[in-house]
Structures are given as C-alpha cells and as structure tokens.
C-alpha cells in the first residue's frame, strides 16, 4: 500500500542520465531504488490502485450524501509526484511518445511496452558478449573489469549471473599463458568466487613480471661445444667436420683454431697481428653488409657483389608454406637452416661432410654463412650457419648462440627469456609453441603473415615461370624441389606462348618438290632446321 506518512515524498533529484533509446536498463536501475525507498512501487504495477474519488456519508438526519474521499487526495498527490519524477528523468525524444499518460501506472506500462523488444535484444547481445569475450591483448585488470561490467548489465536486466557461471566465463576467455591458473582452479574441489579468481590472476601476473625482471644465475646449456675440425667430434644430435667457414668478426677465409675434440683444421694470422689490425679498424665505420670496419664503409666490401645471385633468386622460390622461425635446440652443435635466403653472407661448402641425425642418416651441407635475428633491443647474430636443404626446421644451437652473443637463455614451461650475460637485462621474450621455443625476428612478422595467406600457384603458372617446358619436366622440377602447387585442369593442353614460339618460322619457304603421282610422299621440314 502507498505510504500514508505524508503527501511530500522524498524521491531525491532525478538521475542525471536521461532515459533515451539505448539506456533503458541502466535508467531503470537508477530510478527503482528511489521509488522503493519512498515505498511507492505499488503505483507502478497498479497494486495501489486509485481509491474512489467520493464516499457515501450518512448524516445525523439519516440521509446520505457523496463527499470527497480523503484517501483519494493522498493517493493523487503521491501518484503525481512520482509521475513528475519519472517525466523529469526522460529525454525529449521519449517525452514525445508518452504524452497523455496521466498516471504513474499508465506511464510505466507505456515505457515498458516501448522498450520490451529492445530490452530483449540487449539481453541477448549481453549474453553473447559475456560468452565470447576473450582477454587477448587486454591487461588482466581491464579484462576482469569488462567481464564484471557485462555481468552487472545482465543483473540490471533481471538476469543476474551467478559466481560459478562468471568464473566459467572468465576462465574460458583466458589465453594459453594462464593454463596453469586454469588447471589449479580446476583442481580445487570448492568453487571460488569471481573476486577470488581476480585476486589469483593478479597474483599470477605479478609473479610473471617479477620473474621477467629479476636477476638470476647463469644458464648452462646441455649442448656439447663441438667445432668443425679435421679430427673426430662428438655430439648428441648433429655432427659436422671439416670445411672452411667465415665469421663476421674475422676475415674472409682462414680463422683462428677453436678448441674442440678434434685436432683443429684452420690456420689463422698471428695473434699480435690481429690485435694490431683491430686497433687500426676501431675508428672506421661499420659496414652494413659484413659488419666489419672499412675506411669507406660498404663501398670496398668484399661481399658487396655476390657471385651466386642466381642461387639467391632460386632460394626465393621456396617461400610457400615454409616455417621461417628459428628454433632453439640445446642438443644441436651447429646452427642449421634449410632456407638459403636466411644467410645474409654465405659461401659454398666444398667439403664432403654431412649432418648426422639421431637416427644415423646423413644430410648434405651446401653452404655456410651467417644470419641475424633482428630484435629492437639488440640484434642477435648466428655465425657459421650450415645450409642443409633437406632439413625442414631452422635450428639454433643454444651453446653457439649464447657464446657468440654473450647472452643466457632461461626456459620456462610457457615462455623463455634471452638476457644479457653481464647486465641480466632482458633482450628477447618468446612463447613456447607446441613444446618448441621459436626465436621470432622482429622484421619477419609481416613477411610471415604474407606467407601464411599466399595461395599456391597452379601448375600452369609454374609452366610459365620455368620458361614453358613440357609438363613432364615441370612435374619433375616441382617434386624434386618440394614446391607446392595446385594441379591445373589444363595441364595437358598447349598454352598460347608455346604455340606462338613454335610457329615463329612461318610462313614456310617456297617448296620445289613436285608430286607426279597420287599420294606420293613429300618430305617437308615444317618446323625449320633444328
């Protein structure tokens, strides 16, 4: 029943956000507490209906008369105050659609009917949003705030989300970095609240940040430091011996002998001469090609003009569906790649040695060179990289990598860190992908995306690229070099350029042959001399 404490209601001031087309649920959330506090919600659903305007009164002379009902006066005063409060909280656009509603019940019914379908659509969208929202690149606090906001909007619409449901929604939106948190919560028998889950996620983020920025002891790889030499060498997965290499930090050709299990195999310049040369080159600019110091930079660099440009062009042909990442391998003794274009400097390998796998099979080495893993903090150099066309992965020897770059690597279950050995400053962060630890270059992110979306060329396109050979030769080249292609429907047909090329001798020269009898065989060199 409506309050009878007095005619003046303490409803407070109307909400600052007026009722408009898109905020009915929020507006309703604002006005209902004020109406409940004044105990006038019965006016909204007509539970406190209007009493009669007049009542029948019996007078002293036993006659009856109609007199104004005092209860109606109190009711109309309260009803009109609530009506005025609601009207003052509406925008002009909504006011134009409720003109003529004289009571609170009529106004409230009209508003609910007006926004009924819109509210249902809004609820559907909210449920879809809370189900499909992912953390992605958002911080954990921003992600939790967004999920809580969606839950609050559903609660305001009359469909509150329970704590177990909210926990399930939040866990479903977390990425793989939080698998340990998800597993820990799944192992707990008692259900937790959304607030407890937020506290655990925040603690996990703080610990990951602390582990990423804190100093730690040196990292010791399990790979054997094996160098190529004429003697025997031992390794766990790969073994290479013999040959000559080139290092960016040294001169082309010979170099100083490196410690190994073998007897060596390189003859270098005297140590005193090398030290004098380093002092003389210290003030020269660094060459952008070989990273050595020349008096005039790259203009006199030995490697400015490569003699095997054709091989470089052929290397670009293997850019379809190739995994271009470098993968850290603690069991490898040398850097290995199957892509020739990954070597910024290279030379042919003339030795007869092979890369030995764990199964004992051998793979031929065709080139040796250097590469760079570009990184905003510090470029990471890969020296003496072996080009092995048969390998399907680009492997980085952890031992050689840490030794050449003066860094350490810390491996964790879901990520890894590359730190400067002297300062412990983080140089590179990476994620564990399928149990592997890829060293992704900052300059390869765009090219990788390009390679992922490129379509396979058809066999007809390869026929044109290779100079219009026969279909048998095209198939042999594609299968020999493991090139991806889409079979063409017109493989057996002859293309127009092939017909035009074979018809370049037309018109035929005048023939002097004479036929003297029917069906006499006449020799004609249709295609011209071979």
UniProtKB/TrEMBL annotation:
InterPro entries xref list: GAG-pre-integrase_dom, PolX-like_BBD
Q: Where is the Retrovirus-related Pol polyprotein from transposon TNT 1-94-like beta-barrel domain?
A: 326-402
Q: Where does the source fall among the domains of life?
A: Eukaryota
Region (Disordered), start-end ranges: 222-280
Question: Where does the GAG-pre-integrase domain start and stop, copy by copy?
Answer: 435-503
Stretches assigned to coiled coil: none
Which stretches does UniProt call biased (Basic residues)?
A: 231-243
Q: Which segments show compositional bias classed as Basic and acidic residues? A: 244-255
Q: Which PANTHER family match?
A: OS01G0873500 PROTEIN (PTHR47481:SF31), PTHR47481
The protein here is known as Uncharacterized protein
């Amino acid at each position: 029943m409506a309050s009878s404490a007095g005619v003046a209601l303490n409803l407070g001031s109307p909400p600052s956000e007026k009722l408009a087309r898109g905020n009915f649920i929020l507006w309703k959330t604002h006005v209902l507490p004020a109406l409940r506090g004044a105990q006038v919600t019965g006016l909204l659903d007509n539970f406190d209906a209007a009493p009669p305007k007049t009542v029948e009164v019996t007078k002293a002379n036993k006659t009856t008369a109609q007199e104004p009902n005092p209860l109606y006066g109190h009711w109309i005063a309260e009803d009109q105050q609530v009506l005025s409060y609601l009207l003052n909280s509406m925008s002009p656009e909504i006011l134009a659609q409720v003109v003529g509603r004289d009571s609170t019940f009529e106004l409230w019914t009209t508003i609910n009917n007006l926004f009924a379908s819109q509210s249902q659509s809004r609820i559907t969208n909210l449920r879809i949003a809370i189900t499909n929202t992912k953390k992605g690149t958002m911080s954990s606090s921003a992600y939790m705030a967004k999920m809580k906001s969606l839950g609050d909007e559903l609660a305001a619409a009359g469909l509150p989300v329970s704590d177990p449901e909210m926990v399930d929604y939040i866990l479903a939106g977390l990425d793989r970095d939080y698998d340990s948190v998800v597993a820990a919560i799944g192992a707990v028998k008692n259900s937790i609240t959304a607030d407890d889950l937020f506290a655990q996620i925040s603690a996990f983020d703080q610990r990951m940040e602390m582990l990423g920025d804190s100093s730690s002891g040196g990292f010791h790889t399990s790979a054997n430091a094996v160098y190529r030499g004429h003697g025997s060498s031992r390794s766990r997965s790969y073994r290479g011996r013999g040959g000559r290499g080139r290092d960016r930090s040294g001169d082309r050709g010979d170099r100083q002998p490196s410690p190994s299990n073998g007897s060596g195999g390189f003859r270098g310049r005297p140590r005193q001469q090398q030290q004098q040369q380093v002092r003389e080159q210290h003030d020269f600019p660094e060459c952008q090609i070989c990273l050595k110091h020349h008096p005039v930079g790259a203009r006199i660099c030995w490697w400015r003009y490569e003699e095997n440009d054709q091989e470089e062009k052929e290397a670009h042909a293997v850019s379809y569906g190739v995994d271009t990442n470098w993968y850290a391998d603690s069991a490898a003794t040398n850097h290995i790649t199957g892509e020739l274009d990954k070597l910024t400097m290279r030379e042919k390998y003339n030795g007869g040695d092979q890369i030995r796998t764990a199964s004992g099979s051998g793979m031929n080495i065709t080139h040796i060179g250097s590469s760079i893993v570009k990184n905003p903090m510090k470029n990471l150099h890969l020296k003496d990289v072996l080009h092995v066309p048969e390998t399907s992965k680009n492997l980085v020897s952890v031992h050689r990598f840490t030794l050449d770059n003066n860094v350490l690597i810390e491996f964790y279950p879901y990520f890894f860190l590359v730190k400067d050995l002297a300062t412990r400053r983080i140089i590179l962060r990476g994620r564990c992908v399928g149990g592997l630890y890829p060293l992704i270059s900052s300059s390869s992110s765009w090219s990788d995306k390009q390679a992922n979306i490129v379509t396979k060329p058809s066999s007809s396109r390869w026929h044109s690229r290779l100079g219009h050979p026969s279909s048998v030769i095209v198939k042999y080249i594609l299968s020999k070099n493991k090139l991806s292609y889409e079979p063409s429907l017109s493989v057996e047909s002859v293309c127009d350029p092939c017909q035009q090329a074979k018809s370049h001798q037309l018109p035929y020269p005048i023939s002097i042959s004479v036929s003297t009898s029917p069906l006499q065989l006449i020799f004609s060199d249709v295609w011209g001399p071979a």
